[in-house]
Design brief:
Blueprint (H helix, E strand, L loop, with lengths): L1 H13 L4 E5 L5 E5 L4 H11 L9 E5 L6 E3 L13 E5 L5 H12 L15 H8 L20 H27 L7
Parallel strand pairs: 1-5
Antiparallel strand pairs: 1-2, 3-4, 3-5
Amino acid sequence: MSSDSEPAATQAKSKPAPFVEVWTPDGTVRRFARGTKACFAIERINNRIEDSNVRVDTIEAVKEGEESVEFGPDSELVSYGKDWKLHAVCHSCSAEALRVSSEQESNGGPAANHVRRRKKSKAQEIEKLINPADLYPGGVVPQGGPPRSTLVYISNVIMVFGILIGLAAGWVYILESKLFIWR
């Protein structure tokens, strides 16, 4: 019976975790389900980073002494093994942000008192920048009027088609008749 339990214990140890951990530039660790698309993970990481100057571009799997593996936007996040770490890479980050991130990582992870704040969406940021009243003369935003009657609209369309058909018929009559003789 003990021989049956040993393979089960070995299988349990070798079974991969149902998630992958990604180290962000600010030193936090974000967990994503195995198979999550890299573009989704990048979007979520960028929404959670407090510093607006730090924007994650790609995710790479890094191992000491090995060349890093970069995940494309449609590739699925996977863990390559024990010594491999997934890093969210920011190619446009400042040197100070990268220094702080490397210090936190060398200490074993993010600071214990690190508190994440939810970033505002880009729509909320743009909404604050644009005042709709500035786009209209006098600064007054027009209000919508009552809806026009559908019957009036349909009758206007029919009347326009009638006029167009009448003009076309008149033009054909003039061209077909012998009113214009070209000699």
